[in-house]
Specification:
This protein starts with a helix and ends with a helix. It has an 8-stranded mixed sheet. Strands 15-16-17-19-18 form a 5-stranded mixed sheet. It has a 4-stranded mixed sheet with strand order 26-23-22-28. The protein is of the alpha+beta class. Strand 18 (287-288) and strand 19 form a beta hairpin. The radius of gyration is 28 Å and the shape is globular. The protein is built from 31 helices and 28 strands.
């Protein structure tokens, strides 16, 4: 330790001495923690042709450190200090060589700095031996995987951790002999080592990649390989259920389909050497698009024995999404993470197109609308709304760019853009974009510049409002003098913005006949007038956004709420029903429909809904209404249980059962659920999975405190898969009937190491703050919010949002809102990007207690 400290002192002294001799130390703006815009630009201007040759030694025990060696070669245009990103302590850097010789260096503010005087013009080679941080290694007892998006590569190895410095990677891993190893490149060679029980795996050099896409997985994994038309795909997993393992062939088939679709659409062959995928338990995302080693979570990929349509669609969409990223994100990458949405918008939009031939029975216009618009509204309607394209000064905040706005609002916007241009013109523009920026980096403005050549419209002005500004328009209307439809849009934030879009309104006359009215808002338009074909008599009402293509808050016309609710069961057009469902719920949240009226109408409508997607959406809205505006649960329970017992489609019975389980409060309902769980029985025609029984055990333990210990112990014994047993053992204490145990669980979650498996931590926090225990759990809110900055710093991109959602979703009280208010009052300068996450998840507290 004394030697390390002395070495570090000598490094600082050397830099200071060199500075005094006329070689200035790097500008302070370049050396702030993280990767600032200034540092990123500095390196882009002076460094080029970067290559990494990396080695990691991975012990079998996760208690032992992972050590490594990085050989970084780069060309330097003119002598400059070499600033390498590494988020570790100085003690973790064992040695630094430049061009084969030891040089003085400093480890400061998450960087390793080599002074200008040590550098030569042209090619330089930096060799660093180091100890890796565990943060991005995601280590378990029998496996580990790296997850480096967006700026976590610097926690694993020294690098230039910015997306616009694409590099070639060569990797070798030393691992236990019983472990598999997978990485971006194909395996080139495997050698035994001088150490018994160890072997070294060498991987081929990759194509140019951003650091966040570098990845490897090592551990006890099973490998399945599939082939089609000369292309091979390997699937690695840890699943033990034979019925789930049998799904691997279906998964591989959908990957092949997705690759072929994108190759045909883009006219660019798959741009990387291989496509392997690893399905992992407890993986914190749905998937991650590492080339050659794409990661997926087991919960989304291995479906239950009788999956619902939503679950099958979700898996296919996920596969198509991650596969699309090979072209949009990996082949062509955003220049800076403020444009991260430019990879997510294409992945989601094209996924919606790619799954169409796989599900010919599905109304895909309806599916697109239900997939994206409600999720986008859930953030865009809040005080924490953000633009699609956000400002980002430092990569350390890049994870906060992610959310429903970039994943769900952006595909809706893209669909509008494609409609403006035409599908073929847009496709030609996209093909030019991919060829121009192949294996490179691009911006949204660069894409718009290309697309402008294929249309006469002013895309820049259109893009400014939809992409660069937050929020959405409020759209209202009235029928004037009984014959003219007047529609107005306004900016609720009073910026004077005008959203250019085409809107559809359905006028329903008293005799049941209808008239479709198209309204177009162009540029500066705030009002639109349309004469009706016939006078609107008493009883005429209007359904806004009838085709579901518009985006905004559509206020129901005055006195139209009852009529729209009553019309819902009789509306034959599925897209119209779906759009009306969304509009009615948004009006409920904005207090334009009484909760009692809404719930009564929805319960009358639900049993007769024949479309599976609409049935699922309606179930979700009903559950949310009961959570936010609790009423006597008996009628709700009765309606749901009747569907469980009598619905013709098994998946409808299952969906109704899951909602019944979540809202059941009456003694009769709880006793019924307990009997089902205890005997391991299923309601007739309703196939329950292991996950259903696990979720049921949590709910029952909360509602039946005298039996909680017995329920948890019994359920733990029923689980056979070792990964799922560990998961249950971690989460189940959060449903303990003893407050001291729950307090202990909460205190443990404030410790970084106990949040290592983020989905488990989120599930435990959610149980602690469930609605039935919210009075006791109010005290968790403030400390959990105080920990949020550390949660962001130590967690992955979705964890801050998931942390706050798990914390606040079960709370509906004024006391909970006060905790949030007090937190912001105590932190008036809280980071905007992070405060937006809190305001998004706290939105319901402000609507309930405005």
């Amino acid at each position: 330790m004394i030697y390390v400290m002395f070495k570090h002192f000598i490094g600082i002294a050397s830099i200071a001495f060199l500075s005094a001799c006329g070689s200035p130390a790097p500008d302070a703006a370049l050396l702030q923690p993280g990767v600032s815009r200034e540092l990123a630009q500095f390196r882009k201007e002076h460094f080029k042709e970067v290559r990494y040759n990396l080695f990691f030694s991975i012990p079998e025990s996760r208690e032992e450190a992972v050590t490594g060696k990085a050989d970084i070669t780069l060309a330097i245009r003119e002598r400059q200090p070499v600033i390498i990103d590494f988020r570790g302590e100085s003690e973790q850097v064992a040695s630094v060589l430049l061009n084969g010789r030891k040089v003085p260096y400093t480890v400061k503010d998450e960087h390793i700095v080599i002074d200008t005087r040590e550098v030569t013009n042209g090619e330089n080679r930096v060799t660093i031996e180091f100890t890796a941080n565990d943060q991005s290694l995601n280590r378990r007892d029998e496996f580990l995987y790296t997850l480096l998006v967006p700026d976590r590569a610097r926690t694993l190895f020294p690098c230039f951790d910015q997306p616009d410095m694409k590099s070639l990677f060569t990797l070798s891993l030393e691992v236990p002999s019983s472990w598999q190893a997978v990485a971006n490149g194909a395996i080139e060679q495997v050698d035994s080592t001088s150490v018994t029980g160890r072997r070294r795996v060498y991987f081929r050099e990759t194509e140019p990649l951003s650091t966040y896409l570098f990845s490897f997985v090592a551990g006890k994994l099973t490998r399945e390989t599939y082939s089609r038309d000369g292309r091979n795909i390997s699937i690695y997993h840890r699943e033990t259920d034979p019925k789930k393992v049998a799904q691997c062939s279906d998964i591989a088939s959908e990957v092949f389909d997705a690759l072929e679709w994108q190759e045909e659409y883009t006219q660019i062959p798959y741009p990387f050497a291989k496509y392997d995928l690893i399905i992992l338990p407890g993986f914190q995302f749905g998937g991650m698009e590492h080339t050659g080693a794409t990661l997926y979570t087991d919960g989304r990929m291995f479906l239950n024995e009788n999956p619902t349509l939503n679950e099958r669609l979700a898996r296919s969409s996920l596969i198509a999404h991650e596969t699309s990223h090979m072209w949009f994100g990996d082949f062509v990458t955003m220049e800076w993470f403020n444009d991260v949405w430019t990879k997510e918008v294409f992945a989601n939009y094209y996924a919606s197109q790619m799954i169409e031939p796989l599900f010919p029975e599905v109304n895909h216009s309806l599916n697109f609308m239900l997939d994206y618009i409600p999720a986008a509204y859930s953030e865009d309607r809040t005080a924490g709304a953000n633009p699609v394209k956000q400002q980002l000064e430092n990569m350390r905040d890049a994870g906060l760019m992610y959310g429903n706005i970039i994943y769900d609002k952006s595909p809706v916007i893209l669909e509008m853009l494609i409609k403006k241009m035409g599908k073929e013109s847009f496709r030609k523009g996209i093909q030019e974009y991919l060829k121009k920026y192949a294996y490179g980096n691009a911006t949204w403005e660069g894409l718009i510049g290309i697309l402008d050549k294929y249309t006469d419209d002013d895309l820049s002005a259109w893009s400014h409002v939809w992409v660069n500004e937050k929020g959405m328009p409020e759209i209202s209307g009235v029928i004037t003098e009984g014959k003219t439809l007047l529609v107005a849009q306004k900016d609720p934030l009073r910026r004077g913005l005008h959203w250019e879009q085409d809107l559809s309104f359905l006028v329903v006359y008293p005799d049941g006949k209808t008239e479709d009215v198209q309204v177009s808002f162009k540029k500066e338009a705030m009002f639109c007038f349309k004469d009706l074909k016939r006078p609107a008599g008493e009883g005429t009402f209007v359904i806004p956004n009838a085709d579901g293509k518009g985006y905004g808050f559509f206020c129901l016309f005055e006195n139209n709420a009852n009529a729209c609710l009553s019309y819902l069961p009789f509306c034959k057009d599925e897209v119209l029903r779906g759009s009306l469902l969304i509009t009615l719920y948004e009006n409920l949240l904005n207090r334009r429909i009484p909760a009692e009226l809404y719930m009564e109408a929805m319960l009358d409508y639900l049993p007769g809904e024949t479309n599976s997607l609409l049935f699922s959406a309606a179930l979700g809205y009903i559950g949310n209404c009961q959570r936010l505006y609790p009423s006597d649960p008996e009628k709700l329970e009765q309606v749901l249980w009747r569907i469980v017992m009598t619905a013709e489609q098994p998946q409808r019975r299952l969906q109704a059962f899951r909602q019944y389980r979540s809202i059941a409060r009456s003694p009769e309902a709880v006793r019924r659920l307990y009997a089902l769980w205890k005997d391991g029985k299923e309601p007739a025609g309703c196939s329950l999975s292991e996950n259903d029984y696990i979720s049921l055990s949590y709910d029952l333990a909360i509602q039946m405190p005298d039996k909680a210990d017995e329920i948890v112990a019994t359920q733990q014994a029923r689980i056979t898969n070792p990964d799922r047993k560990r998961q249950y053992a971690f989460i189940s204490p959060s449903v303990s009937p003893r407050k001291e145990v729950r307090d202990s669980v909460f205190a443990s979650l404030l410790v970084v190491g106990n949040r290592r498996i983020e989905p488990w931590a989120s599930a435990a926090l959610s149980n602690l703050n469930c609605q039935l225990r919210q009075k006791e759990a109010v005290g968790y809110i403030r400390p959990a919010l105080e920990a949020l900055q550390e949660v962001q710093r130590t967690g992955d991109i979705f964890f801050p949002r998931d942390w706050v959602r798990a914390l606040l979703n079960g709370h509906t009280s004024l006391a909970a809102r006060k905790e949030v208010d007090d937190f912001f009052a105590a932190h008036p300068d809280y980071p905007v990007l992070l405060s937006n996450k809190v305001r998004q998840q706290a939105d319901h507290l402000y609507r309930l207690h405005d």
